[in-house]
Amino acid sequence: MTELVPTLAWLVPAxxxxxxxxxxxxxxxxxxxxxNIGAAVLTAALALALAATALARGDQPxxxxxxxxxxxxxxVFEAVIAVVxxxxxxxxxxxxxxxxxxxxxxxxxxRLYYAALYAFWATLLTIPLAGNLGVVWxxxxxxxxxxxxxxxxxxxxxxxxxxxxxxxLTSLGLTVALLGIVVLAIAQPPGGLHALDWHALAxxxxxxxxxxxxxxxLLILAGLAAKIGWAPxxxxxxxxxxxxxxxxxxxxxxxxxxxxxxxxxxxxxALAPAVEHAGAVFVGFGLASLIVAVPFLWRPLPWKRLLxxxxxxxxxxxxxxxxxxxxxxxxxxALHVAGHGLAKALGFYAAQPxxxxxxxxxxxxxxxxxxxxxxxxxxxxVSLGSLAGLPPSPLFLSELLILLGGVEAGQGAVVAVAIVxxxxxxxxxxxxxxxxxxxxxxxxARRRAHRGERRLVALTATLGxxxxxxxxxxxxxxxxxxxxxxxxxxx
Length: 491
Description:
Blueprint: H1 5-22, H2 29-56, E1 63-64, E2 69-70, H3 72-98, H4 106-126, H5 133-151, H6 157-187, H7 198-204, H8 210-228, H9 237-243, H10 246-271, H11 278-297, H12 303-324, H13 327-357, H14 369-372, H15 374-388, H16 394-408, H17 412-436, H18 451-474, H19 481-488
Helix pairs in contact: 1-2, 1-4, 2-3, 2-4, 3-4, 3-10, 3-13, 4-5, 5-6, 5-10, 6-8, 6-9, 7-10, 8-10, 9-10, 9-12, 10-12, 10-13, 11-12, 11-17, 12-13, 12-16, 13-15, 13-16, 13-18, 13-19, 15-17, 15-18, 16-17, 16-18
């Protein structure tokens, strides 16, 4: 299987990219839907095969060529992006039927939606595999264009504003990151674009002068933070997540944000020999994100906006784990990426039947969903319980591993603050669960069942089983060979 890795590394992103072009020529909505389902299943199967190969290699040296790099971290992130992308593609036909057709006619709108969705997914699948910082920057910028169109897809004024805000703020952040890349390229010996190869950067780092390396590192990380949604540069995140179609919100939160975290992690690993206390910058972003998220998680918020602020909290947890950098913490990071991806995607998919059941829930906090729809309430409960870290959620175990990793790293004060912030976040999400799922219904919501609810049962069973499997696997994760490789660096 290892011999096929170079082929898969090109084929995995090429298939959805080709689908994005091919779907524009589909003669009907039914044909576009069929192409969507077939392409999604095949893309996910190839991506999961590549991810499994990367993970099975354990602590062996990474596979790399001129433009690609595949290691254990690539496997984890690629698998999450594949699963979330597959689920988002499969629920998109229902979203399009229920959500109208945006700016264009129904048939044209559907084709344009699929084209943007597959272009976005193709770029996301490429980011964990790219072996060059310059190429990665281009890919991250490409995600902005495709996903901004999807955020504004409905054509509503609020959606257009959210899409524009997302485009401007994240592009500004990436401009700052580009400046850091330029500083880094100037500080290195001449080598053109290949001087920004991850391995070339790591090899040159011990010879870099400390000041330009630190300056470049801070610029790159600050720019990427705007795309990840770390506080205090998270302003675009709640609007974009709440206004985008639910399948797109799932990709934004469960796939895009962690993929950019991986880029920041690789920058830290490559430049660590030239930058003292690089982990402290991650710890600072992590604590800031956890603390800023708490007041919002305590407020009654519309469902998708609540999930967006939960993303702020969980990206902070990942920053802490990477900043601590111990084997326990990095095992927690790998588990947290997977658990957060499944739980957050399920929460956004539950928004589809929730808004059909109670359209006012787009503007206010939901209430009493269990009395109206058991399938929707179950999906919301599984998502909220998992995101809150309620056992047996894999996020409980991943957060425990990260905090123990912080103790192992001698960061007791940081761990204490993080525990308080996580406990407060847990109480906020628990209150949202009690009121939104189990409380008294408000208003005159519809009570009849929908086809979307029946589909949600299958999604909840599948993703819920995946969460339980992650919890079982996570108990043995610190001993896995690829975790030891992560601790040595993600390059």
